[in-house]
Specification:
seven-stranded mixed β-sheet; 328 residues; single chain; alpha/beta; Purple Acid Phosphatase, chain A, domain 2
Length: 328
């Protein structure tokens, strides 16, 4: 298990986006709040205290705005949404949320998961997708967890629906300094030969190539996602994807994204003590092989930080497990 100072570590220094008006964005993803479950590598019985600790730290950090980037609940249970609401009531900054695959109705649900329209009423200023101005940036928030034909109800992979892609095409023509966010991963953190096979393919968008081409065409510098439970940056052309760490599992952390005239600095901040992080790490290592791989990838990512450093002299060997560059 890699040590992390309580103040966090710089995960990336990016040349873009920039903003004449400094903005501090908090990003919290994959909370999986669970009030009636225990165990697994997510340690469900500790998710409430993890979320509460993160909220306290975000308040201390005096963030301007908070993005909850999906999987707020264990599996969309109404009582877990209610508990999430109680926890974020303590948050001093304004916030929005986008749904994750665990926040939307699925075919196998044994409870009445609220529809996406209910999620939007609670956590968005208007129906998804939408634009939220935050200081000098436009936060463009989409929904990768559901599509109109309901085809994602039987799986945990994501997609950007055709209407959303059309909306993005129009919106990005007029958006000022856009940063795009949704739950699933636009770009894979591993090579294409791996991500085409289950279970790895569940972490990326079904139509990620179309999304990537659209964002590239409009020179969007940053897209923020969660879902993977492995913090990472992935670059393709001028676009950087930032994957937030999970709140509920190792490394038990959130992100501070500081945007100013010099560029963007991303800091990964733990919201659990050393013993708690060790407990979470051990639970992941005791889990199935995929989770053991996640633990290794997280540690390799933390050891390599900063994954991108726009202030450093360029080198010929800048690629790491946590930071991949895909050539067009």
């Amino acid at each position: 298990m890699r040590p992390i100072d309580s103040d966090g570590i710089v995960l990336a220094r990016l040349a873009a986006p920039t903003s004449d008006q400094p903005v501090r964005l908090g990003v919290l993803s994959d909370l999986h709040v669970a009030t009636r479950a225990r165990g697994t590598d997510r340690l469900f019985h500790r998710t409430e205290e993890r979320a509460a600790a993160a909220v306290d730290l975000l308040n201390d950090a005096e963030v301007d705005f908070v993005l909850f980037d999906g999987d707020l609940t264990k599996d969309g249970e109404p009582w877990n949404f209610d508990r999430f609401d109680e926890l974020v009531a303590e948050l001093e900054a304004p916030f929005v949320a986008t749904p994750g695959n665990h926040d939307v109705p699925k075919t196998g649900d044994e409870h009445d998961t609220p529809p996406v329209s209910s999620f939007e009423d609670r956590y968005a200023p208007e129906p998804l997708p939408f634009v939220q101005s935050v200081g000098g940036i436009d936060l463009v928030v989409c929904n990768s967890a559901t599509v109109p034909d309901g085809s994602l109800a039987d799986e945990h992979r994501g997609a950007l629906s055709r209407p959303q892609l059309e909306w993005l095409e129009t919106t990005l023509q007029v958006a000022s300094n856009p940063v795009v966010a949704f739950h699933h991963n636009l770009l894979p953190i591993l090579g294409s030969d791996v991500v085409r096979r289950p279970p790895w393919r569940t972490f990326s968008l079904r139509n990620g190539e179309a999304g990537r081409e659209l964002l590239d065409r409009h020179a969007v510098p940053l897209v923020i996602s969660g879902h993977h439970h492995v913090p990472a940056t992935v670059s393709a052309g001028s676009l950087t994807q930032l994957i937030a760490p999970p709140s509920c599992a190792y490394p038990l952390a959130h992100l501070l994204v500081d945007i100013d005239r010099r560029g963007t600095t991303v800091t990964l901040v733990p919201h659990a003590a050393l013993d708690d992080r060790r407990e979470s790490f051990d639970a992941m290592c005791a889990g199935p092989p995929l989770r053991q791989t996640f633990a290794r990838l997280v540690d390799e990512t933390l050891a390599a930080a900063p994954l991108v450093d726009a202030t450093a002299e360029p080198t010929e060997s800048a690629s790491t497990v946590g930071s991949r560059r895909f050539r067009s």
